[in-house]
Design brief:
Largest sheet: 2 strands, antiparallel
Number of strands: 2
Strand content: under 5%
Structural class: mainly alpha
Helix content: 55-70%
Strand order of the largest sheet: 1-2
């Protein structure tokens, strides 16, 4: 039923209006009608609750409320949470309501009561006596104007001192939640704050040593991270995932990449090897040395030279070489590097004196290797059988030369790891071994799934079970530099993982070191599901178009495909056809590298169609009409060049077509074009605002998985807002206020929130929309709002009535200044 406006107002105020009509009018667009319905005793209770959040005073003054309280003694518990908060925060909150909720166990109710300037001493005392009252709430009670009275002087010194204490405590990680007013733990929102404001250059200098692992990893992943930050990350104790990202980053200094090639982790070493910033000459040098240490015919004099190699991996492989003499092993056994001592401890030519010495080694890995060596004397095995680490004792149980009496003593431990090795050891007494095999030998089986190793294998391949133990002969063939690649390709189909990886690394080595590998064999090698193999082929002189397109179209789980395309573009034998196609690659870095190569190829011929278009796009002499047409070009590189052209930006204010063109580029479907617009030094403010609006952080829903979403959009937002901060801080603040939402507060975020409130003119409309929820900001944040000279008079007038004596005093001083 449609009513006129006057009839609707009359019906809303009439206590005889039917509940059905009042329910219909409760959604009316006129605020006065909804307000009248909130105070009408005939309004259904569920409708009242819906309106109470908007009109708390009308709700509590509704004549029906006392009757409802009489009918239901638990009436207060039926009221929606938001409604209660709004009522308790209201200046007209009834005393009986404040008393009723001052004894509850809900933290938010207690917080809003003590933030209400009208709360009496009696109610404040009830809150203070509540067992659920926190240190922070007690501090607020102490600072409440009805307890501590007004603060005519000394308020600024007090507040500034407290703010500095808060920042110092957060920086030192010795914080007092009674001062901070937020949870004592950090979460993903705080981590997001740290990274975003590091990019924006706002707030305190980020200390990597105290930053969370997420922030460190995000900085390591960021494509524009300065080299000094990446160098500093490597000086800290960081997780392996962060080290891998540093190894991948193109800005990582070469000396750091060389250090990472020496890393204990195979994944880190290989990530550094694939980094396009690591000179190929260094990669070649590494593999030439690797080729020598894996060649069974390398003479001992050359091996001694390699003992001083810059690569710790090479030095460790030297210690495994069968041609080493006993005197060499004795020297290497005293090496400070544990990997070298492990290799010596495993060496078949190590004598009893060396093995006795290594039995006492501080490294568990060295002692484990001694425990497995067939030359280890009985006295050493007996000593190792009492080692404090179970894995050392388990290796003694695995050694076929361990005397049976020691094996029987180990059996008495009844440790699963020891029993499994006893079941496999031919030296274990036959009866005991048979018994153990029934219990433990079948507990672990090794299957080979070829689809994990070869691209050509079907995904549903059932797998081959390895029933026999891998032989030393297989390992030697897989590791030997003289094993032909075709033989290695057959070997990887039948051997367990440890030998498989040796064979893959051997193929990788031979591809890098041997420029004579044919293009046909390289294509066969690309059947191996290994990024490292692909990286080696990408740099090989016999690369062909067929190889290029196979590499470019192969998907890897570690998303390193674009790095492979960069490696191919660095190959001097890459074809012009591939370079031309790379100009349209989906990755900006690949396109830019292809452009440089393309310019080199046509250094003396600028009549190619792409060159003509690109040169016109970058030239400041090109007519505006031509630039507008080029802004529609299918090439992202050309659209990027137009977006960076200063002539187009200069014509923005005088030429409507130029203005529309720049707007279109700022909304281009390709993120790189939008980023080019943001990076243009003269991009006008309205365009920067378009770019900033494309990415918004939604408080409260940002999760560890969502934070990786739209990373480029985030980068565009950061670049645009950073420029706005420099040229129009009052406009930049419109995009920064989203980070001071009260429900976004975490310990890590506090310094950045304070930096925004102190240094930026927070838009009045932001606070005007939140007049009812100003109490959600901590007292020191409200103090900074009052102190900010850009805060509107209306907001200051509200803070003059604040419950906190310091905020109140600051607001009065600011109001006097405005007067």
């Amino acid at each position: 039923m449609q009513l006129s406006h006057q009839l609707a107002i009359a019906a809303a105020n009439n206590i005889d209006t039917t509940p059905e009509l009042l329910t219909e009018l409760a959604t009316h667009q006129d605020i006065k009608i909804r307000q009248a319905i909130a105070g009408n005793p005939n309004t259904p209770i569920d409708v009242l609750f819906q309106l109470a959040e908007e009109f708390p005073i009308e709700f509590i003054k509704n004549p029906i409320l006392p009757l409802l309280q009489l009918e239901n003694t638990n009436f207060y518990t039926t009221i929606p949470y938001r409604v209660v908060l709004n009522i308790l925060a209201s200046e007209d909150a009834p005393e009986e309501w404040l008393i009723a909720f001052a004894t509850t166990g809900y933290y938010d109710y207690l917080l809003v009561i003590v933030q209400n300037p009208q709360t009496s001493k009696q109610v404040l005392q009830l809150v203070a006596e509540n067992q659920y009252c926190s240190d922070y709430i007690r501090r607020l009670i102490e600072m409440h104007v009805n307890i501590a009275q007004e603060m005519p002087s000394g308020w600024q010194e007090y507040a500034d001192h407290k703010l500095q204490d808060i920042l110092d405590s957060i920086a030192s990680r010795f914080y007092n939640t009674g001062e901070l007013g937020c949870n004592s733990y950090n979460n993903v929102k705080g981590e997001y704050y740290q990274f975003t404001f590091w990019l924006l250059g706002i707030g305190p200098k980020l200390q990597l040593a105290k930053a969370s692992e997420y922030v460190r990893e995000a900085i390591a992943k960021f494509s524009d991270t300065p080299p000094e930050y990446l160098r500093e990350l490597l000086s800290l104790k960081i997780k392996i995932t962060t080290i891998i990202e540093v190894a991948k980053n193109k800005n990582t200094p070469v000396e750091c990449l060389i250090e990472l090639v020496n890393h204990n982790s195979r994944v880190v070493r290989e990530a550094a090897m694939r980094n396009p910033s690591l000179p190929r000459s260094i990669v070649n040098n590494f593999f030439q040395e690797r080729c020598l240490v894996t060649n069974p015919h390398t003479v001992v004099e050359k091996l001694r030279e390699l003992c001083t190699s810059r690569w710790s991996f090479i030095r460790a492989r030297v210690a495994k070489h069968p041609n080493l003499e006993l005197s060499d092993l004795e020297k290497l056994a005293r090496s400070p590097e544990w990997r070298i001592r492990v290799a010596v401890a495993s060496h078949p030519r190590a004598d009893m004196h060396i093995l006795k010495h290594l039995t006492q080694d501080k490294s568990i890995l060295v002692r484990r290797a001694v425990a497995l060596n067939s030359q280890t004397p009985q006295a050493s095995l007996e000593k190792l059988s009492r080692d404090r680490h179970v894995y050392v004792r388990a290796n003694v149980a695995k050694n076929p030369h361990t005397p049976s009496e020691i094996l029987l003593l180990l059996y008495q431990e009844q440790d699963r790891r020891i029993l499994q090795n006893l079941a496999l050891n031919p030296a274990t007494p036959q009866e005991l071994r048979a018994q153990l095999q029934l219990q433990h030998i079948q507990s672990k089986s090794n299957y080979i799934y070829l689809w994990l190793r070869l691209f050509s294998a079907p995904y549903n391949y059932p797998g081959i079970e390895i029933k026999e133990l891998p032989s030393q002969e297989q390992y030697d063939i897989a590791a030997s530099a003289i094993t032909p690649i075709p033989q290695l390709l057959e070997l990887i189909k039948i051997v367990p993982d440890d030998i498989y990886w040796e064979a893959v690394h051997n193929i990788w080595q031979q591809v890098v070191c041997n420029p004579d590998v044919s293009a046909e064999l390289l294509l066969q090698i690309l059947d191996i599901r290994s990024v490292d193999i692909y990286a080696a082929v990408a740099s090989h002189p016999h690369i062909s178009d067929e190889i290029c397109y196979k590499i470019a179209n192969t998907k890897f789980r570690d998303l390193s495909g674009y790095r492979l395309r960069l490696l191919m573009l660095q190959n001097p034998n890459i074809s012009l056809d591939f370079i031309e196609k790379s100009l349209f690659d989906i990755t900006s870095e690949v396109r830019q590298t292809a452009l440089i190569k393309y310019q080199e190829k046509f250094a003396h011929n600028h009549h190619q169609s792409f060159f003509l278009a690109y040169n016109a796009a970058i030239s400041e002499q090109t007519p505006i009409e031509t630039l507008i047409e080029l802004a529609k070009h299918k090439s992202v590189l050309i659209r990027e060049a137009v977006a960076q052209n200063s002539r187009l930006v200069a014509a923005y204010s005088d030429f409507v077509k130029a203005r529309n063109c720049l707007k279109r580029l700022a909304q281009d479907k390709n993120q790189s074009v939008r980023l080019a617009v943001a990076n243009n030094i003269n991009t006008p403010i309205p365009i920067l605002e378009i770019l900033a609006k494309n990415y918004q952080y939604t408080p409260g829903i940002y999760t560890r998985y969502q934070r990786h979403h739209n990373r480029k959009e985030h980068k565009i937002f950061v670049v645009a807002v950073k420029k706005l901060i420099q040229i129009a801080p009052e406009i930049a603040s419109k995009y920064l206020v989203q980070y001071i939402e009260p429900n976004c507060r975490t310990i890590d975020s506090i310094p950045f929130r304070l930096a925004i409130l102190q240094n930026f003119p927070v838009p009045s409309e932001y606070f005007l929309q939140r007049l009812k929820t100003l109490y959600l900001f901590t007292w020191y944040e409200r103090y900074l709002i009052a102190q900010n000279p850009q805060t509107s008079t209306e907001i200051v007038q509200i803070l003059v009535k604040d419950s906190n004596r310091v905020v109140r005093a600051a607001a009065k001083a600011r109001l006097n200044e405005k007067s």
